Amino acid sequence: MDYYRCPIEELYRETRRRGHTSLGTCDELSEDLEKDDRLREADATTVKTESPIPLISSIPQEAYLSQTAGFVVDAAGNLQSGQSTPANLLINQKIVHWTMNTFFPSLQLFFESGLSCTVDCGKLPDAILGLDQNLRFRLTDCTHEENGRLTRTTLPEKFARTGAAIEINSAVIAQRTSIAIKPGAHRSDGRLPNTSTVTIVEEVHTVVGLRLEGMNEMGYIWAKTMTPLEERKDRTWGDVRVGNLKEDVPVPFLGFPQRVTKAGAKAIVVIKKSMIGRSENVDEQAECGF
């Protein structure tokens, strides 16, 4: 996030909250906070996470009625939003593959049982789904696709088969409080907001927590808009929900499209950039081994 127009008092307060040394100019503090955001992502911006939310009705309605993925067709042949699934139904399912942020801001989990489910964030503009670092670290043991890139499991070949399925030991719906940047408040005379300054506020949003086999603590799936502050209408953080468990979506082709691959190797399966910049795409493919 861009902290450069925040008042120095708020920068001091946020720096102290993160346990950093609160000394320096506005620019220095802003750069330190922005660097911390890049390194620790949601771990840096999270104030607290409260879980679990016991009932599905406790989730904000828009979190599961306006999703962009997980649609179903009703008896009349009309496209309808899928219903939410209580998180505890995911317990004991074993993840064999997952895809994230390729076509929609969503995470699709494929299970050894043949079922799958979609975790999404509704219609938050220009959103991405993200994973807490401990959850991401564990999930990379699976071959997966993210942002159009297929990444082979990081496990050595002799362990890849036996360690491919990761069991979900615990799953919850939780509420997280995170910091966000908002335009300055309205002037007292009723004129337009003072756009020369911004303020650090706290937002409450819904996240999905998973504790996988081999994890000591819960890791959370969260959603964040990438829309610039000047174009943003409302929220920075979105509400995440779990879609229905389904059996009509096959697991993607798990073979790797290269003859010789190493653990952690990547390949482009979907190009999400403009095809005008052909030279950039060729360079990217070369990096991935094509």
Structural account:
With 290 residues, the chain is an alpha+beta fold. It folds into 2 domains: 3-46, no CATH class; 61-268, no CATH class. 19% of the residues lie in helices and 30% in strands. It is built from 7 helices and 15 strands. The strands form 2 sheets. Strands 1, 4, 5, 6, 7, 8, 9, 10, 11, 12, 13, 14 and 15 form a 13-stranded mixed sheet that branches. It has a two-stranded antiparallel sheet with strand order 2-3. Strand 4 and strand 5 form a beta hairpin. It is globular. The two termini are 35 Å apart. Residues 54-74 and 77-81 have low confidence and may be disordered.
In brief:
The chain is an alpha+beta fold.
What are the SSEs and their pairings?
Elements: H1 8-17, H2 26-40, H3 42-45, E1 46-50, H4 62-65, E2 71-73, E3 79-81, E4 94-100, E5 106-111, E6 116-120, E7 127-131, H5 133-139, E8 144-146, E9 149-151, H6 157-160, E10 166-183, E11 198-212, E12 219-225, E13 237-238, E14 241-242, E15 266-268, H7 278-287
Parallel strand pairs: 4-8
Antiparallel strand pairs: 1-10, 2-3, 4-5, 4-10, 5-6, 6-14, 7-12, 8-9, 9-15, 10-11, 11-12, 12-13
- Characterize the biggest β-sheet: 13 strands, mixed
Question: Helix segment count?
Answer: 7
- Give the proportion of residues in helices: 10-25%
Computed over alpha carbons, the radius of gyration is: 21 Å
Mean pLDDT: 77
Classify the beta-strand content into a percent band. 25-35%
Low-confidence stretches: 54-74, 77-81
Number of structurally distinct domains: 2
Distance between the termini: 35 Å
Shape designation: globular
Please state the structural category. Answer: alpha+beta
The topology string of helices and strands comes to HHHEHEEEEEEHEEHEEEEEEH
Strands, total number: 15
